Amino acid sequence: MPGYILPLEKLIEQFEHLPGIGHKTAVRLAFSVLEGTEEEAGAFAQAILDAKHKVVRCKVCQNLSDTEVCSVCSDPKRDRSMLCVVEDPKAVMALERVKEYNGLYHVLHGTLSPMDGIGPEQLTIRELIARLTDGEVKEILLATNPTIEGETTAVYLSKLIKPLGIRISRLAYGVPVGGDIDYADEVTLFRAIEGRRDL
Amino acid sequence: MPGYILPLEKLIEQFEHLPGIGHKTAVRLAFSVLEGTEEEAGAFAQAILDAKHKVVRCKVCQNLSDTEVCSVCSDPKRDRSMLCVVEDPKAVMALERVKEYNGLYHVLHGTLSPMDGIGPEQLTIRELIARLTDGEVKEILLATNPTIEGETTAVYLSKLIKPLGIRISRLAYGVPVGGDIDYADEVTLFRAIEGRRDL
User: Fold this and answer.
1) What is the CATH number of domain B78-194?
2) Is B79 in contact with A2 (CB distance < 8 Å)?
3) Series of mean pLDDT values for 10-residue runs along chain B (199 residues)
4) Is the pLDDT of residue A1 over 50?
5) Terminus of chain B with fewer CB atoms < 10 Å: N or C?
6) What is the DSSP letter of A5?
7) Residues B18-45: pLDDT tens digits?
8) Does B41 touch chain A (CB under 8 A)?
9) What is the distance between the alpha carbons of residues A66 and A93, in angstroms, rounded to a whole number?
10) Three-state secondary structure of chain B
11) Interface test with A, best of B5, B27, B62 (most A CBs within 10 A)
């Protein structure tokens, strides 16, 4: 194709690989990179590399972290008797924005979904149970998404954990059913934490 | 902020700098980078750097290029008697997709806009006039956008070029093909009626 500028086309292609970005948006984004300074392009490229290289899983809660133990798990001011179990790191970010919850987290990295071949072994359930052996955790707040998979996972976990004599609660149905915790607004999330129910 | 993962936050911030990308989209895009492989992240970062480092302006038509003279200007099959004057490189990409136009281009990199302090010196008008001295160019198609600034620039250029005895044309205005007359604005319809052609 004449008029083809390879480095530009390659950048457009890269943007098109991102979720929800079509061709015209990709073109717009690629041109905005070209219009910026060298420093800005360098910082953007570095941010991509750093995010990929430096972000690991916290060995305690399995959340994404740039240290071996994440800042929440290593914070002495957090309430260690409370664990909030979430599906993914985005849910932790959403809950942290509310500033209401002061316990620790456990990130499952998915939900039970037998249709997709995802059983308990594919999630971080083994790591979760291991955290409950020393008796420090008194309550577990199940904050999986209010979807079929999220509910299934919550029921599975409650059956697994109840025999250990730990209080189990579930986020209240302040979060819109069928929605996604990542996209809930702060007030809704606040109500959901406040109105948590025993299972 | 507890739960803050610096490399991730930095990447989200970088995505937020892009035009039309809000916080939630930026989070989604950043996570999609994290979910990809190291190679994919590396290729993305490299594409940004390459686009910024390797893309320069063609010294003939001022369009973006990865070579000193762009592939259109150096193509012996293009009609050198015809110049299409556009505002920006995106317009060249759009016109090239049509595959109908076989002449050369000249990219102004903007439009006249005295309110924003953009006069003829800020555009590549000097370079355009220099291309017209050898008498090779017989026609200039003014393809600036149908906006006030685009019109002003077209009128300015036509006044400047007419004394050189070169034919000057302008892209036709009208209802877009596949569009709906009901949704066309009054000005477009007025131009479409004004520019009606015999069948």
Assistant:
1) 3.40.1360.10
2) no
3) 73 94 93 92 95 92 92 93 92 84 93 91 94 91 89 93 91 80 80 77
4) no
5) C
6) -
7) 999 999 999 999 999 998 999 999 999 9
8) yes
9) 14
10) CCCCCHHHHHHHHHHHHCCCCCHHHHHHHHHHHHHCCHHHHHHHHHHHHHHHHHCEECCCCCCEECCCCCCCCCCCCCEEEEEEEECCHHHHHHHHHHCCCCEEEEECCCCCEHHHCECHHHCCHHHHHHHCCCCCCCEEEECCCCCHHHHHHHHHHHHHHHHHCCEEEECCCCCCCCCCHHHCCHHHHHHHHHCCCCC
11) B5
**pLDDT 10s digits, B52-75:** 999 999 999 999 999 999 999 999
User: How many Cβ atoms from other residues are within 10 Å of residue B62's Cβ?
Assistant: 22
Place of tokens 């281009």: B105
Sheet holding B139-142, edge to edge: B103-107, B79-86, B139-142, B167-170
> How many C-beta neighbours within 10 Å does residue A1 have?
8
A42 token code pair: 């360098």
Residue with tokens 């219009």: A35
User: Tokens 């999986």 correspond to what residue?
Assistant: A144
CA nearest to A2, candidates B63, B135, B17? B63
CB A82 within 8 A of CB A103: yes
Q: Where do the structural domains in chain A lie, given as residue ranges?
A: 78-194
Contact A26, A16 (CB under 8 A): yes
Q: Which two tokens stand for residue A186?
A: 């702060």
SS3 assignment, position A33: helix
**B173, B150 in Cβ contact below 8 A?**
no
Contacts of A18 in chain B (CB under 8 A): 29, 32-33
Give the tokens for residue B190: 């007025």
pLDDT digits (tens, 9 = 90+) for A106-121: 999 999 998 889 999 8
Q: Say what the pTM is.
A: 0.75
Judged by CB atoms within 8 Å, which residues 76-105 of B form the interface with A? Answer: 78, 89-90, 92-93, 96
Interface check A22 vs B, CB under 8 A? no
- A159 Cβ contact list (under 8 Å, min separation 6): none
Q: Which of B44, B64, B69, B93 to mutate to test the interface with A (most CBs of A within 10 A)?
A: B44
> Which H or E run contains A58?
none
